[in-house]
Design brief:
Number of helices: 16
Structural class: alpha+beta
Helix content: 40-55%
Distance between the termini: 87 Å
Shape: elongated
Oligomer: single chain
Number of strands: 16
Strand content: 15-25%
Bound molecules: iron/sulfur cluster
Length: 471
Amino acid sequence: MQQQVGAVIELYRELESYPVNIGEKTVHAKRMPGYFRSLRTATQLGLWLPLLLLPYLRWNGKQAIMFDIDHSQFHCFNLTVRPDEIWMLMLLWLGASVLMFAVTNIASRVWCGYFCFQSTWVDLFTWIEGKVEGNPAARRKLDDAPWHADKIIKKVAKHAIWLGVSLLTAISFSVWFVDAFEYWNKLLHLQLPRAGWVTLALVITGTYLYAGLMREQMCLWMCPYARFQSVMADGQTLMPSYDIKRGEPRSKLRKGDQAPAQQGDCIDCYQCVQVCPTGVDIRHGHQLGCITCGLCIDACDSVMDKIGKPHGLIRYATPDEIEGKPHGKRRQNPWLWVYAALLLASGSGVVYGLTHMSVLTLNVRPERQPLFVRMSDGSIQNRYEFKLMNKSPKDMQITVTAEGGIKGQLIVGSAKPIFVAHERGTAFTVFVKAPGENIAKAATPIRFHVQSLDNPPISADYNTLFNGPSL
Ligand code: SF4
Ligand code: SF4
């Protein structure tokens, strides 16, 4: 076993100088059918189609899901999250980040290969390129050819379609923040506000530039995730790997040739490199450019079928497995426990927030100047500024009562209900008067209670102080 591991390490050392794709040549990856190609298409469609279409879903006559920038609110069906509850979205964001760390430790850049916006749009853009310009060989030939009518027509058509897709992408992004149908109406009548036009222009430019022109160079050099994913992976991380012991020594195999006895299973056909969207040769070991899409596995398996060898020369495997280390106890990385605890904490926080969200949010500010007023009858009066947010879609009438405070206290004008408009904050002033002789201390806790008259279970409380003279 020791000898085997030593031999594998030696082979890696021999192969360790490998070409790095720095974008000097456009990668024209071959598209091949296969299990991972289908899986990739399914996961990409499964994530992005709903995200593109969800803004058009209506709920109670309004957009079901919207980050309402104008009113600083997030709507999700009946749920409305306001700035004071934005901590829930932040917890959700924290949970998603931690989930990504955990998934990276278990399965490397699986996000990049199967879900990421950049790799999905590059896949779409290169598919369009293939439809307009032909297969990878034809595309390379067209790139190298001098400018002529056919080349100009094909290039103009490709870039026009790319710009059309970029425009649709920019619209799909924008309608998450404003009413989708109103947006289309304004766009078609060229009446978008300036911020709308700027957003549209920025997203079109970004999409066209990143997915059409920069492509895999974004994944290789600009994506921060690509940088830190390498420190999260360890010997037990699952990733597409070339079985170097089985594949080497490689040599070409011509049709009808018998493979020499010492030859490995790799016939150096380059199919795995030709299908790679980032131009990686996985036979040099796992590299920064690998987005874990598994397309090289499909390619190699199809080659193995043709030469009558078993699948899996390239397969999802851990570095430990490839190096022949004993499997033993797996997944002992203590960071996984940290990730699990953080996930649990953020998930519980969000669940708590959602289950304890109130329709009414009350904020009470006692008057500071003066703290209290002594009335002509000897009573002490405090003034409070109320701010009540009614998050429900209905207007309501509310009453204000108080608990605690001073014996004999009363709320001036409390018999009259107060109107609070739907989905708005309403400000009003409340006076509390208490007999002077009942005041025992300078500050007495008081609890205000507001309650809907139309729907009594809807209520909110606020604890503050009733101020009186120092004794
Ligand atoms: S090396 Fe294989 S898994 Fe990695 S990006 Fe290329 S095709 Fe995808
Ligand atoms: S596809 Fe398989 S056989 Fe062909 S070069 Fe790649 S690893 Fe070798």
